[in-house]
Amino acid sequence: MKGIIIFVVIILLFLTALVIGSQNSQVISVNYLLAQADMRLSTFMVITIGLGFVIGFLVMLMRFLTLKMQLKLLQRRLKKLSKESN
Questions:
Q1: Half-sphere exposure of 45 (CA within 13 A, CB side)
Q2: Exposed site from 6, 34, 63, 69, fewest CB < 10 Å?
Q3: Among residues 57, 54, 28, 33, which one has the least CA distance to residue 43?
Q4: Residues near 44 by beta carbon (within 8 Å), at least 6 away in sequence
Q5: Contact indicator for 46, 21 with CB cutoff of 8 Å
Q6: What's the rounded Cα separation, in Å, for the pair 18 and 46?
Q7: Cα separation of 12 and 57, whole Å?
Q8: Percent of the chain scored above 70 by pLDDT?
């Protein structure tokens, strides 16, 4: 149930960004390290929000996997210590 609520909140955030972005049709010039591009403000907003979501997801995934590995290691140590005490 918690996953469904989180999914709905994420979809609502993306829809809000889409609605706000559709109201911003000005062309802007974006300078990044290697080049320059002219794009609509709404497109730029979608790209930056999407990149932020992907980067945040990857950081959380890395942290989750690190904690999962630590948990497995600690469970092995606990099992080994409990066998030694018997």
A1: 18
A2: 34
A3: 28
A4: 28, 30
A5: yes
A6: 7
A7: 17
A8: 99
Measure the CA–CA gap between 34 and 48, rounded to whole angstroms: 17
Residues 31-70: pLDDT tens digits? 988 889 999 888 888 788 889 989 999 999 999 999 999 9
Q: How many domains does the chain have?
A: 1
Number of H helices, E strands in the chain: 2, 2
What is the maximum span of the chain, computed from C-alpha positions, in angstroms? 73
- Helix, strand, or coil here: 36? strand
Global model pTM greater than 0.70 = no
HSE value, Cβ hemisphere, 13 Å, CA-based, for 31: 0
Distance CA 82, CA 86 (A): 7
Size of the chain, expressed as the number of residues it contains: 86
